[in-house]
Write a structure and sequence with these properties.
With about 625 residues, this protein is of the alpha+beta class. The chain contains 19 helices and 21 strands. About 35% of the residues lie in helices and about 20% in strands. The strands form 5 sheets. The protein has a 7-stranded mixed sheet, with no helix packed on it. It has a 5-stranded mixed sheet with strand order 15-16-17-19-18. The two termini are about 35 Å apart.
């Protein structure tokens, strides 16, 4: 390991056991998180009682956050994270004795440290607060921005460090707490959280949510809207607006099977229920793995269950991420790389090896794209990147997802699937509900698997994968017979076979995505017309196919599809799609003008995570 990385890792470790043991480790080890002002070794939160009112008129959450704390060393101060919150009063204990509090200096993305004076025996702190217009985690939607068009909607997105913008907290992934929440909202709406929830509205508009398992702050989540529930199985169900709920229930019908498959692979599901909520299209991600209630984009509802691997991904997070959690955002690959690997193992069990291989090849294409984008910043291509002085939202997810997947697949190939699966079962069990850093994971692998086998160690090249640039030369080779057949049809079309003569009957969405992605970057107007006339790409109901086609629309100035491009950008806020499209448009003067015209109308419908990204693309001088 390079010496600079060693020094970084040493800085990150606040308390670290000298070596890992086969016996479960019952003590929580806290790690220094550069993105949080919290000092858990002094005083740490363990449980939250949240009592708030959701005011759609004022677009404000107001109320009280009461924390049970553990003050191990008799500290006289506890430190929390805030950003853009109004703190009205702080009291101590059940008797609510007033206590002083102060703020530290303000940071653009870290916010301000909230320092609360406590006593050595203080066990509860009560913070009265309200959100402001600067609550980047919150998106308040007007009725016109919802599927039903009649009632407003609110949802949160706390990852990576936005929980502090809607609730004062110790906003570090390495700090866990249980919680109970009382949410007051308009009586014609339903409030749900990443917790045990009601499934029907009540006349009072008051809902109580309980999370008995300890979770980090980035998994705190709230949604309030005109929501209905449909069961999917004995432990699963889906929430959505009335106009979407039946479609969602049909799309996610395999959820219970996914849960059973995941448990057979890596042990019991420890969160009680696994429900899903389909949010309005402005949700900035494909999905967010909030425990007990995955938040999902409606862009995965294609009508044919072709995009539900995203549900397998968010379910897999119930083990890799929610159960064993990256302690800092520099270690985010431990969440996402593991989850991508686990997702494809679930899909292989349910839908077959070839299905999973097609997904892996599409993922490899995403990784190649990420590598191209980072050609001027190769320092961001290791799995572990020191983000101590950077906004963790700038992490290259293409790297941590797909390079992380390939690393774990390489481990499986060298160690053997049976032995590798046994190791992962033990890993999830040993470190359940605990934080994990990269160095600790490497130590655990070396002790449990490598066991001083120098030959195996050289084959694995773990340091190159984790700390090195690019992709090591022992990268797994992924092949797909199905994609090779697609390539044959592509070659035929390029050699003059008309589109309507291609053998595309019964193609799966993966094949269509592969076909569209691999079309020539530059095509004639005649070629674009032919493809769109025969295959209807511009009007595709599959968001992945439509997105891949719209890249070509921009590259080839295909004016007939500009209306579809504008409609896509106006109605979808998923950053995975929005960012590349605006980036491509901004490469030409005409494209930039079109992008700004669309964005003037679209920006208000995007979540802050999306519009702050697009702002930098279209208005770089305003950084």
């Amino acid at each position: 390991m390079p010496s600079i990385i060693k020094s970084v890792c040493s800085f990150l470790v606040l308390v670290l056991i000298a070596s890992c043991s086969k016996k479960p480790d019952h003590d929580v080890h806290y790690f220094k998180d550069p993105h949080s002002y919290a000092r858990p070794a002094e005083a740490v939160v363990t449980h939250l009682n949240l009592d708030v009112n959701v005011d759609f008129t004022a677009k404000q959450i107001t109320g009280k956050a009461s924390y049970q704390i553990k003050n191990k060393n008799g500290s006289e101060v506890i430190r929390l994270d805030t950003r853009g919150l109004a703190i009205h009063k702080v009291t101590l204990g059940k008797e609510e004795t007033n206590t002083p509090f102060t703020f530290g200096d303000s940071s653009a993305y870290l916010g301000r440290e909230l320092k609360i004076t406590i006593k050595p025996k203080t066990d509860w702190i009560n913070i009265y607060y309200s959100t402001t217009d600067n609550a980047d985690a919150l998106q308040w939607l007007e009725p016109s921005q919802t599927a039903g068009k009649t009632k407003p909607f609110l949802f949160t997105q706390s990852q990576p460090i936005l929980a502090r913008t809607w609730i004062p907290c110790q906003d570090s992934p390495g700090i866990r707490m249980t919680y109970h929440a009382k949410i007051q909202c308009p009586p014609d709406l339903l409030a749900v959280m990443s917790a045990e929830n009601a499934t029907v509205k009540n006349s009072s508009g008051i809902y109580e949510c309980d999370m008995p398992q300890p979770v980090p702050s980035y998994l705190l989540a709230l949604a309030v809207g005109d929501i209905e529930f449909r069961p999917l199985g004995k432990r699963s169900g889906v929430y959505a607006e009335p106009a979407m709920v039946e479609k969602a229930a049909l799309e996610f019908a395999d959820t219970e099977k996914m849960m059973e498959t995941a448990e057979k692979l890596y042990g019991p599901y420890r969160w009680g229920r696994y429900d899903i909520i389909v949010l309005p299209p402005s949700f900035p991600f494909g999905g967010m793995e909030n425990p007990r209630l995955t938040f999902a984009t409606p862009t995965i509802i294609a009508g044919d269950r072709s995009l539900v691997s995203l549900i397998a991904h968010e379910l897999a997070h119930s083990w890799s991420g929610n159960l064993v959690t990256n302690a800092t955002w520099s270690d985010a690959w431990l969440n996402e790389g593991f989850t991508m690997y686990f997702e494809r193992r679930i899909d292989e069990e349910l839908y077959g090896k070839e299905f999973a291989e097609m997904e892996a090849l599409l993922g490899f294409q995403d990784l190649q794209e990420a590598m191209t984008e980072l050609k001027d910043h190769p320092e961001d291509t290791p799995l572990f990147v020191d983000f101590a002085k950077r906004n963790p939202d700038d992490i290259s997810y293409g790297i941590i997802y797909e390079k992380g997947y390939l690393f774990l697949r390489m481990m499986e190939e060298h160690i053997g699937r049976e032995k590798w699966d046994a190791f992962l079962n033990e890993y999830f069990n040993t470190f359940a509900f605990k934080p994990m850093i990269t160095e600790r994971f490497v130590n655990y692998v070396n002790e449990e698997l490598v066991k001083k086998d120098s030959t195996l160690s050289k084959k694995l090249k773990m340091d190159q994968w984790i700390y090195g640039l690019g992709i090591p030369d022992n990268c797994p080779v992924i092949t797909s017979d199905t994609f090779q057949k697609v390539d044959v049809q592509m070659k035929a079309w390029l050699n003059g076979t008309t589109a309507d003569q291609l053998e595309t009957k019964d193609w799966l969405s993966h094949q269509w995505i592969h076909f569209v992605r691999n079309l020539p970057e530059k095509m004639s107007r005649t070629q674009m017309d032919e493809l769109d006339r025969v295959f209807g790409f511009s009007k595709s109901g599959n968001s992945e196919i439509a997105f891949a086609w719209l890249i070509h629309v921009i590259n080839n100035d295909y004016v007939p599809a500009y209306a579809q491009l504008e409609n896509f950008l106006m109605n979808i806020g998923r950053r995975k799609f929005v960012e590349p499209l605006y980036t491509r448009l901004a490469k030409s003067q005409n494209g930039l003008e079109l992008a700004k015209k669309i964005y003037r109308n679209a920006r208000s419908s995007y979540h802050s995570i999306t519009y702050l990204t697009v702002d930098k693309i279209l208005f770089p001088t305003n950084k």
